[in-house]
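Weekly structure sync, notes
Attendees: PL (lead), two postdocs, one rotation student
Agenda item 3: pending single-chain targets
PL asked that the sequence for the first pending target be pasted directly into the notes so everyone works from the same version. It is reproduced below exactly as submitted, 172 residues in total.
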Amino acid sequence: PHRRHQEKQLVERLSQGLLEGLKILLPVSPLGLGQEILKLLRSHHQFTGRDWDIWVDGAVAQGCDLYGNLLPQFPLAVQNFAKHQSLFWDERVKPRMRRLTSENSPLASSNPYILLTDNLTQLETYCDQGNWLILLPEFIQEFQEFELKSAKNMAIETYLLSEHSDCPNITQ
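Predicted structure, written out during the meeting:
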């Protein structure tokens, strides 16, 4: 399917999960996919202005910092976007994007939120309380054991965000 259709499906599922009161975990690679999803959520009309929290942990957060340092090398559309608001860390703009730390952890919160992480060894710790939706990229196969041990308070689904580009806007 076209990339925009894939993005639309992912955003709709994330929005639906939050409206259902679920906490959503997105295990992603430290560079690339995580930042791409964060940028999508920050700019998509279904998320813009919504009173939701998006948390970022581990090397994914470090990758966000690296992207910020490389901003002058990005396409003009991305640079222009960043002139009006931060690409990642900004608690004034909704949805709020925050770095997960031990001091500000939402893990015990009953409020729905999205958590992006590359730390696959912590999945059971992240998903200890509440009802969770875990969204895995379709190409990940290593979660079978985790799924069998923890299925009681979790729904595990996959999504597709292919690496091809349908048009210049998506490449940017």
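Discussion points:
- The two ends are 19 Å apart (CA to CA).
- The beta strands are 23-27, 53-56, 96-99, 114-117, 132-137, 154-159.
Action: rotation student to compare against the earlier draft before next sync.
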